[in-house]
Amino acid sequence: MTDNQQDPRPCQPLPGQWPQGGPQGAALAREVLGYVPAAGGRDEIHDADGQVAPHWRYLLDALGALGPQALAERVHKARRILRDDGATYNVSSEPLASRAWELDLVPQLLESEEWGRIEAGLVERAELLDLLLKDIYGPRELIRHGILPPELVFAHPGFLRQCQGLSLPGDHQLILYAADMVRDSSGSLHVIGDRAQAPSGAGYALENRTVMSRVLPSLFRDSHVHRLSGFFHQLRQKLMALGSGDGIPQVVVLTPGSYSETYFEHAFLANYLGYPLVQGSDLTVRGGRVWMRSLEGLRPVDVILRRVDDFYCDPVELRGDSQLGVPGLLEVARAGRVAIANPLGSGFIENPALFKYLPAIGRFFFGREPRIPSVETYWCGDPADRQRMLDELPGLVIKPTFRRYGQQSVFGSALDEAGLASWRRRIAEAPLDYVGQRHLAASHTPVLEAGALQPRPMVLRSFAVANPTSYTFMPGGLTRVGLAAHTRVVTSLTGSASKDTWVLASEPEKQLSLRAERPAPGIAVEPGVMPSRVVENLFWMGRYAERGEATLRLLRTLFLQLNGVEPLSPGARRVLLRAVTEVTHTLPGFCAADAPIAHPETELKAVVLDSARPGTVTASLRAMLQAGEEVKELLSADTQRVLNDLRDELAALEVQLGGELVAPEEALDPLVTTLLALSGLRHESMFRGMNWRFWELGRGIEKALQLISLLQATLVQPLADGDIPVVTESVLLTCETLITYRRRYRAEPEIRRGVELMVFDESNPRGLIYQIERLHRHVGVLPAVEQQQGLSRAGRLTLEALTALRLSRLDELTARDAAGAIGLAPLLSRFDLLLHSLADVLAECYFDHRVEQRQLVQGGWGYG
Amino acid sequence: MRYRVEHLTRYCYERPVTQCHNRAHLLPRDTAQQRCLGSAIQVSPAPVVAAERRDYFDNRIYLFSVESLHTDLEVRVVSQVEVEGRNGLEPELDFGITCAEARERLWRGAAEEHLLAREFLLDSPMVRTGTALSDYAAPSLADARPLLSGVRELTARIFREFAYDPGFSTIATPLDEVLESRRGVCQDFAHLAIGCLRALGFPARYVSGYVETQPGPGHQRMVGADASHAWFAVYVPGEGWVDFDPTNDNMPGSQHITTAWGRDYADVTPLCGIVFDGGDCREMTVAVDVERLPS
């Protein structure tokens, strides 16, 4: 089945040749999809006469013909793609609680001609804000000439005095810009917000486009939609042009990390543009330049695409307590040795009080007022405005002049008398901090909900990047819609859905996509240099995945043995339960004096589910997912899918293990299978670069350590003769070696043969010698970082382990002494130490050791 | 008057520091009454990168990074400064524009200087105004009183009513607490006066600098010598900025040497920055020597 066969193909898809016979598309859509426009306000699909606008007809026809059933399938497909791509918007600081990005399948349509007008207005606005930015951090003519009240600038927390005189190469200082717009009842668009700090959404818009073109391919193709790639092409050109040195500049994308609400987009953009994604701690200032810490050492950085708010970027001169920044960054930027887009200090432009003064600023710089209007705004710093604001509060939207995380606009109409009084007080106390905006009832656009089209209010965000002479806008942008027909706040934070925005081309466009770009001949492009933090996270992904898997396998064995046909002897029961506690380091557990040996279910469940206790299945796998989140940009779509499954299965465990335990091992199986899928992907599809090697190292070290703990907790312990078979069998089962054992020896499990299989058999991929050999090989090809001849420190450790293993004799190791213990014990302790040292040495040599960072002056004045 | 000022700052750390980035406001600026004839800054261990720049307030800042391992960081600045101005006798202040006029003129018309001075009416990182401050200052700054005379009285009251107590406050001590407990050091008194003036609608700024160590014959040795000093200035529409020193109950003349000014201490911290590793700072010492040179 192809999509083409399913998509309806009305006879005249070319724009400009719409059927003249009346609103048949609308009729169809209304019939099939039941669209009834919301009362009041404007509806996007209807023109002034209440007729369906011609440019919407084809789409509505197509959707109507597709019908609710097929649309539901497409919705489902779109969700799956978004989930597989890891498209999320993090609404809390808990990164694993992120919410899937919501995409509505009905695109927002704009005619080419109308978009041309909007774009011209937006270009003008961007140019104006650029002049404003240059003036505010330059001569401040706007204040000197009385155009801007001094307080509007001087009292705004986004005005960073330290950024006075900063200058980027090229004509523009405002590199990236985004405007939020709504359409009022007269049909004209008004800007309701400017984004100039680190505008987000362009990456989501691209993701939306990718999904739409996949789930509605022929509709998309036949609609002749303006492409988005020109914007990203220009973004890349601009970032390259900001680099001042010779050769190809190294550009990085600076993110606050996986806790950021738009982290998906940071990773997505970094990938799409081909730049490393870094956090503040991946960068360092040395010798007056910015460097990235990579496995191969420090690599110079020329341009930073910034997604960290400016005041966090440099604790030396901006917020001293920030851990997200790069100490010394501002001075490097001042010296012109690194370019930051947007420049530090640009957050000031987002001050909504500027709306009131933009016409005057336009007259000052251009001799005329800007074409595109802003929503009517009162600034309480102006005495007359303050009075108006206090009088008219019930009809206004109250906004802070400085946007802080999680702060929402307040609607005067939603406040009761007490609420109004309280806000009047707040405004009177800090008038400079608030604006009042006339509430614009946003226009409605159809969204698909429960098989029908429903009207929702919409906000359009459009994105610009500076080009050599002016600004390039992404055609359309990101449309967001309210949760319900009369929702007033439309932001991603409140859970709004988004739409792809289609500017319908009047003629086909030439293809332009980053994929088609080729580097100039003769210039070698750096193979992906990566911050060493990334490698560290892959290492830990490997370790946690292995730790989780080992715990799962052990618990599975326990559940089987505890519920087995043959009851366990009290001794064997005690040894196996204690092994759970010792291997997982979840003390006291079954090692406590009053341990619940007779009724172990609650504690065993806790070892699976308790996310607050390190060592439990949930804790290990969550840590693994968290490490995965940190390296999101490197994971393939398949890997992302596996991680998603894992997250879902973890959530399901809670329910499955909720009541009485019935065959609990069954509940653990899917997790083991999914972890194996992850191993398979690593094995089959990862390039054998350093990423893969460190993942393997983490996995191998953990696997060996887990086996060592397991043997220490079981076979090395003094065991009654009668318990030896069942304990050995349990260990073999846990290590997936039982079948081989039975096939090979056809006898009751006993220690000597068990140890031979699990420690010395070089063909057993779960065996100790196998792991140590592989570790030794990986360590041998790591980049040299030490100033010494011969073997590296890591190499010495693995060689010692390997040699000790090869030189030891099975008979001596498995002989039992008078106390009933076997000779394997000291060897295992030695290995345990060597492997832990190996992990430490790797961390010391290759990973970003977060240095302790403090402010120079603390506490005392130190002065008279 | 000509001076040689030597300002030494030393930090000792528990463990070696691997790297530090710093910003210093230690080089004296030029003012209407003062010319810096020359200054030399010496950092040990030697910085790998260093630059002198002008900050937002046109003060001289020195930015430097040290990348060699060190447990002691030493910053030594030696400057020669020429200061003109009164020595001893204070001007007659009981005339000129009144408090009410000053407030009114500041907001009338569009004189550039007035517009820019309004920056110093606003709350700043370390000075938040409030009714406690305006209540304290109001008796000295009645509407009909000449502004400078009122500010002079406020200066005297702070000197009289507050105890100079180096052990009391730290950078983190809020202004309310200083006001409440009536004690502090020069930075606190400067912030206090600034907060009082802003609360009543008069722009005020923070001035950091030094006072002469060796008093001339017949003069008392001033508090704040052997350390860096701080005072404040008030903006008088039509006249400009006028300095007052509440720690010494006087008006800075030729014995005060200005380093930098800003909204408050945070804008002109003598030395600040970020240190990597090193553990706690075991000891921080500051030594200042102001020597009068033969003219």
How would you describe what is shown here?
The complex is a heterodimer of chains A (864) and B (295). Chain A is of the alpha+beta class. Among the domains of chain A are: 376-439, Dna Ligase, domain 1; 532-846, no CATH class. Chain A has 28 helices and 22 strands. In chain A, strands 3, 4, 5, 17, 18, 19, 20 and 21 form an 8-stranded mixed β-sheet that branches. Chain A has a 4-stranded parallel β-sheet with strand order 7-6-11-12. In chain A, a hairpin with a 4-residue loop joins strand 18 (452-466) and strand 19. The longest helix of chain A is centred in the first third of the chain and has 31 residues, at 54-84. Chain A is elongated, with a radius of gyration of 32 Å. Chain A starts with a helix and ends in a 9-residue tail after the last strand. Chain B has 295 residues and is α+β, with helices and mostly antiparallel strands. In chain B, the strands form 3 sheets. In chain B, strands 1, 2, 3, 4, 5, 12 and 13 form a 7-stranded antiparallel β-sheet that branches. In chain B, strands 10-9-8-11 form a 4-stranded antiparallel β-sheet, with helices on one face. Chain B folds into 2 domains: 2-84 and 269-293, Immunoglobulin-like (Sandwich), CATH 2.60.40.2250; 99-267, C8orf32 fold (Roll), CATH 3.10.620.30. Chain B has 6 helices and 13 strands. The longest helix of chain B is centred in the middle third of the chain and has 15 residues, at 147-161. In chain B, strand 6 (163-164), helix 5 (175-181) and strand 7 (183-184) form a beta-alpha-beta unit. At the A-B interface, helix 6 and strand 22 of A face strand 1, strand 3, helix 2, strand 12 and strand 13 of B.
Question: Top keywords for this entry?
Answer:
heterodimer, A: 864 residues, alpha+beta, Dna Ligase, domain 1, 8-stranded mixed beta sheet, 4-stranded parallel beta sheet, 22 strands, 13% strand, B: 295 residues, 2 domains, 6 helices
